[in-house]
Amino acid sequence: MKILLQARGASLQALFFVVISISMMVVDHRFHHLEVVRTNISLALSPLKYLVSLPATGGNWLNDWFTSHTELLEENAALRAEGRILNARLQKLEILAEENARLRSLLGSARKIADDVIVAELLSVDQNPYRQLIEINKGSSDGVEIGFAVIDDSGVMGQVIHVNPQSATTILISDPEHAIPVQFVRSGTRSVAFGRGSTTQLELRYLPATADIKIDDDLVTSGLGGRFPPDYPVAKVTAIEEDRVRGFVTVLAEPKAHLDSSREVLVIKPRQ
Amino acid sequence: MSKLRYLVIYLSLVVAVVLMILPLPDWVQIYRPNWVALVLIYWSMALPKRVGLWFAFFTGIVLDTSQGTLLGQHTLALVIIIYVNMNFYQRIRVLALAQQAMYVFALLLVNQVIVAWVEGIMGRPTPLLAFFGAPFIGMLIWPWVFVILRDVRRKALLS
Predict the structure, then answer these.
(1) Interchain CB distance below 8 Å, B18 and A48
(2) Is A178 helix (H, G, I), strand (E, B) or coil?
(3) Contact between chains at A28 and B79 (C-beta distance less than 8 A)
């Protein structure tokens, strides 16, 4: 009891403060007049708040700085590696796209023949300048036999002269030792086209001067001899040389097949 | 010049406020002891003439602003516990630290109750565990608070 009396002064003070506190709470809750007080005190406290957040901010900043650097280096290396792989794939893709286009046209032409065909690829070219021989990647194990005609999507290329189990040697129509029976489309005149060792020129010899031949005439296989399927494009006439003395003309023709650039070829089984 | 010595009281309260706003992980936050209350209790026990209800009031305002509670919430709680303290400190001062700690626990609990009660009236959620957690931690650290502030007081040559 005594204690309470002693504290009487303080009691009034306490009561006063309690009332003030409760009124403040009501005012702060219901109205916003006390926002000013809050804002100002907040302002005064802001240095403390900044101080308190410094370690965390500093830690984060350091973490970012170091992590970023390491992360960037790693990311860089990873992206470079990926870039290299993608580049290589891209080149492969372009090559494949071109091959696809060629194969499509080749298969398109194969449909015209409606024969048994074997798709093959060029393996190598005989570098002998006097011979026009190529290796293809299909051989006896694929059904290729000597004498089979080899064509590309534009025209006749040659015939198989030698087979291995996995590859075959093909002589091109431009080889000097090759002769292919041909027929003029327009006039029906039959002749034989000889190779001259040049992929751009075939020679038709000893044609009668009276033959109906013009520049740009198309030559197709005549099918005689059974080696080549008939009516397959061979060449286009580029020049006609007259030999007045003997009364013959020599016709030069450019092969339609891409003898020096074709990569995909068809091997045709001759009709029995 | 002698007035400057009383600066320690303000400084200790500033430190207490800093400790109250220190960022802590979520699961630790609820067990944070009321440093301001602890420091205030000590000073009102040590210098009852100087540190009284006015101190409690203004410290309460600062605490309300920093904690985001209603202006008056912590004021009310602190005023009440300091008032109680003013009536009992003489008997508590002579007790051993451990027993003082239990008294401090009671005060902190009252503080907690008042603050949580107002929160409840406001419709804000009040976690149950924290109800006893924070005063309990406060009780555990009271001996240290007492000793440290006593040393500070002696260094500053305050009665």
Answers:
(1) yes
(2) coil
(3) no
Token duo for residue B11: 């400084």
Domain borders along chain B are 2-20+33-155
A245–chain B Cβ distance below 8 A for any pair: no
| Amino acid occupying residue A139 | G
User: For residue B52, which residues of chain A lie inside 8 Å, CB to CB?
Assistant: 10, 13
Place of tokens 């023949």: A113
pTM exceeds 0.90: no
**Other beta carbons within 10 Å of A264:** 17
CA B56 to CA B40: how far, in whole Å? Answer: 7
CA distance B62 to chain A (A): 7
- Please state, in angstroms and as integers, the Cα–Cα distance from residue A108 to each residue in A102, A103, A118, A222, B90, following that order: 10, 8, 14, 21, 111
Tell whether the model's pLDDT for residue A4 goes beyond 70: no
Q: Is the CB of A101 inside 8 Å of chain B's CB atoms?
A: no
* Dist. CA B89–CA B116, nearest whole Å: 25
Residue B159 confidence (pLDDT): 62
Query: For residue range A77-136, what is the model confidence (pLDDT) as tens digits?
Result: 999 999 988 888 888 888 888 888 888 888 776 666 566 788 898 887 776 767 788 888
Locate A67 and state its tokens. 């992590």
Chain B positions touching A7 (Cβ under 8 A) are 83, 86-87
* pLDDT value of residue B85: 92
On the question of pLDDT at B59 being above 60, the answer is yes
Residue A6, Cβ neighbours under 10 Å: how many?
A: 13
Going by C-alpha positions, the residue among B55, B59, B41, B45 that lies closest to residue B139 is B41
Minimal Cβ distance to B72: which of A10, A24, A52: A24
Residues of chain A positioned with their CB less than 8 A from the CB of B80: 14, 18
Given A13, A24, A56, which is nearest B53 (Cβ)?
A13
The DSSP H or E segment spanning A158 is strand A156-163
B70: nearest CB among A7, A28, A49 = A28
Q: What is the pLDDT of residue A110?
A: 63
